[in-house]
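Thread: Modeling a multi-component assembly for a lab meeting

Hi all, long-time lurker, first post. My supervisor asked me to bring a structural picture of a complex we are working on to next week's group meeting, and I have zero experience with this. I have the sequence lines for every component (1242 residues in total). Could someone generate the structure of the whole assembly? Inputs are pasted exactly as I received them:
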Amino acid sequence: MDVLHHIFVDPFVQMAQAPDLLVQTLWEGLVGGILYALIALGFVLIFKASGVFNFAQGIMVVFAALTLVGLHEKGVPAYLALALTILVMFGLAFSVERLMLRPLVNQPDIILFMATFGLTYFLIGLGELIFGGEPKVMIASELGLPKGSIDLNMLGGFISLQKIDIAATIIASVMVVSLAVFFQKTRIGRALRAVADSHKAALSVGISLEQIWVIVWFTAGIVALATGIMWGARSEVSFALQIIALKALPVLILGGFTSIPGAIVGGLIIGIGEKLGEFYWGPLLGSGIESWLAYFIALLFLLFRPQGLFGERIIERI
Amino acid sequence: MGAHAPADADTFPKLLIHNARIRGARPAIRHKDLGIWQTWTWAQVLDEVRAFSVGLEELGVKRGDTIAIIGSNKPRLYWAMCAAQAIGAVPVPIYADSVADEMAYVLDHAEVKIAIAENQEQVDKLLSVSDKLPKLAHIVYDEPRGLRDYDHARLTWIDQVQKNGRDALKDPERLRRWERSVADTRGGDLAIILYTSGTTGRPKGVMLTHENVLISARNGNLFDQLGENEEVIAYLPIAWVGDHIFSYAQSYVAGFCVNCPEAGETVVEDRREIGTTYAFAPPRIYENLLTLTMVRMEDAGALKRRMFHFFIDFARKWGEKILNGEKVPLWARLVYKIGDFLVYAPLKNRFGLSKIRVGYTAGEAIGPEIFRFYRALGVNLKQLYGQTEASVYITAQPDGEIYADTVGKPNIDVDVKIDDSGEVLFKSPGVFQGYYKDPEKTAETKTPDGWVRTGDAGFFDPKTGHLKIIDRAKDVGRLNDGTLFAPKYIENKLKFYPNIKEAVAYGDKRDYVTVMLNIDLVAVGSWAERNNIIYGSYQELAGHPRVYEMIEKHVDEVNRSLVEEGPMAGAQIRRFLILHKELDADDGELTRTQKVRRGFIAERYQPLVTALYDGSKEADISTEVTFEDGRKGVISARVAIRDLTPIPVRKPAMEKAA
Amino acid sequence: MRAPSESDIAAGEVLLAVENVSLSFGGVKAIRDVSFDIRKGEIRAIIGPNGAGKTSMLNVINGFYTPQEGRITFRGQTRNKMRPHDAAAGGIARTFQNVALFRGMTALDNIMAGRSLKMHRGLFWQLIRFGPAMAEEVEHRLRVEEIIDFLHIQHIRKVPVGRLPYGLQKRVELGRALAMEPDLLLLDEPMAGMNLEEKEDMSRFVLDVNQHYGTTIALIEHDMGVVMDLSDRVVVLDYGQKIADGTPDEVKKNQAVIDAYLGVAH
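Re: Modeling a multi-component assembly
Sure thing. I ran the full set together rather than chain by chain. Output:
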């Protein structure tokens, strides 16, 4: 009985008693969620357009951040480093299409999936070789990102908002909206969706799959760079960061592998759920909670909606 | 409210000139083309009509000539009406879905000299019968697609006609001559001939003068306070008097804008974009909208569905009272507001009825459930009773006096009386001049002192003072035991179920009542899908035992309601069957306005009718069907017949006492 | 543009020719040494029993399959294989036997996608979306609206095609192919699975496209009535081989064709 009380009653009492803490927790969950959403977005983009589950999305985040910081360390000015990193991500997308996707075209999905494993280890190796393996500090202030925090006096307490988090929220929102407009309203966006729907139909109207793949991987690379900058600014830039890719999996389960709104909403749910769980239930269930709670939320959700939040309902006629 | 037209503007061309002068910059007509709404102001319409009119004269049209107009609701076809009227010619609009032979009859009877056709389809039909029509001198068409390679000796594009007109109008004398010809038109001149698709016999040409149409339209506008700010959508057949009044006459009189949809299938979407304020539709349209919504709701998520049903039920309880301005508790108003936000407003928006001020249903009885549904949502849906011979208006429901089972009070300037046999007669400024070239029929319908027989049986409800129509006067019959049998009354009760699309009742001079039914493929098909019933065709679904079971329940409920209504209790349905094919206007089973032709169906399905009365459990039938291209085929089927247990009639209290 | 008469076609310029094409998958020979040509302005039917290699032939023509042997000459240019992009860019559009649409996209977007090759503004302008890219979008939308009007599909403009009934999907697919303004239109069983009324509509569209846009059409069709009504010339395949080639009347009388359809043993 006592245990049930601790699980089902106490945390809510705490929430009600200290609304300022609740809001603070929600905010932190929201920011975390946005970053999860961005990673999931990278996955979804590539999965939709080429049917490849890109295991390397996590390491692309690290690689992008590492390149940025590494270039700056080698004396390149911050903004120029940013521009160069974007160029590097384009080079990466181009090489992936030429050297990995094109030779493997028409191979089973699992082969392509394995190939992204290879890509992961290649990028780890390449990153270490060029920039070294030790953790680095993100050049947040050099890039003009704000520091410090805003303290709000409300709800009978203080709520502290990190300015970098606010910036991250804004940048992420702008990015998502621009992507949505790009997808819905432009020729290339339409071509991307076309390729996602039917390869042969896309080919028949003269859409070049190669070009689309480059664009998609490049877009995913840019998303990875943005994620890397923001995540790096909150902690540090190291290869350990790649495990956040594992956080994207429950987000994808929740949101569906093919839905961009799903990735965003799923990311927010996981982010907020995780922080709430960690803060209110964590003391009760032990400290490891953040490593499995996301999966727990996703599984719970799957019981009720197997197709995910926005995934298409799949009806198999027998 | 816009200024009303002066008394000297007593014809439509005069009204057009008047409108171009006082509201020249206001929109008169719109048409959605290539995905964009194109608008013409009154001044522009005058310019187009004038050019068209003079162009027609160049083609040889003279005063008194008849001009056929065939097609769907397109600006240039409406302009054709006024263009003809301006030079004293008489427009004869024709149903666009008529087959070539029907068209030939009307063209021949009306002695049409020039036909204005919408597109290749109509031109093809005209050409296929042109050798039977020596008087038809020329065809003018609106859409050139597919017609480029046709012989243009007797064929001209409207653009060319208008261009000829514009060229001629460069001569100022020609312009003055046109203006004089407009000034010469008189209110008492014949304005239009509308052919009615009668349930029996050949169509009759109803002759209406400018005054008939114009005064009726003006009174209609007054009755509902319609002004120049209304928006209507024109989508009903232009040959139908309703469309002529609503989309032409009332617009010219009040100066409001008429919107022509992009295609027949886009009407709902187009109506939503425009936000019509005044609407007119036969019950079928409202039924279809509702059926589609209900089907879609069945496929929606559980939460959405529950919310929908909760608020719809709530609206059924309170919505009409709020609309009628009755006293309603505050909490109910509040819940209704929430419902409006969550359900009613989105629904009305989907129907394109968000801005509706006045909506009419007419043509036949609307299901009380359907009628109340729209009223409950806050749509001011009203009933109207009219006829071509009356220039539409006979009776209508005034705001705030709405009943599902009446057709309202006599309109402004209309007198209504009921004769001894129960038939409804009227007298009004809209009374037609006569049937074209048919004095005999005219005399049958118009009494010497000016009353018109409607052919409908009805009575004034003593409680409300409203007119109630029960059936066609000639269709009301009696069973062998003397019980009153009003077939349409029973059919309508059946058709109020979304699963039943059409019903045909028999019983006159018989021992009991039987019905033949059509199921609604959309509603029953979706039900079948939800219940894992597999079917390959309409015929298979219609004959499915589980469909029969479901329909049997509906029929049984109708019997129960007949019993409750007293005098009809003896006319319960004893046997029914579901037809293996949909009744179709192309096969002559329905009229062009989609009314069942009971007598014709009885002949065509003779073996089935016999089986209904000889106790058989099933019967074989094969029928010839006509495809759209005129080819014929045969459908055969074995149709099952079901019996119903009669509901015992409760003994009236008087007998119990005895 | 005027529809070409029969004598025009007989003397007509060859738009596309396949010569001695053979195609096999592993050990299975789908096409064996087939040659025929398609002349400018004609409607060319490819018929044959199931498994005769008709769809494979279309796939060779628009570059989906690479034949092991043979040559394809399109507009006077001869090559051993066609690439899908070259085919599309060169003016070959096609529809598919079982409809291959972009199911998640609206009918409008599907047809717009057909104009991919006609739109040239690069990624940069696309990202900015205003200025030249916007003007380009509007210009192409107008062409697409004309096609929508032509095919009478205004009412489904904004409906995701996955939700449309099959007959309308076929129409949208034709619309997408037309949006490419092709010189050669390949139709793979355009009327399969349609009811009588839909078939007649589709036949009318095919004829209109041929007559008014002057588009050359190659179509595979099973309904012999349709083939005889529509086509100027017919090539008949059976077990991957050409067994007849000529006008509908000639082909109808050909003994090999009659045997193939009646299933005489080989």
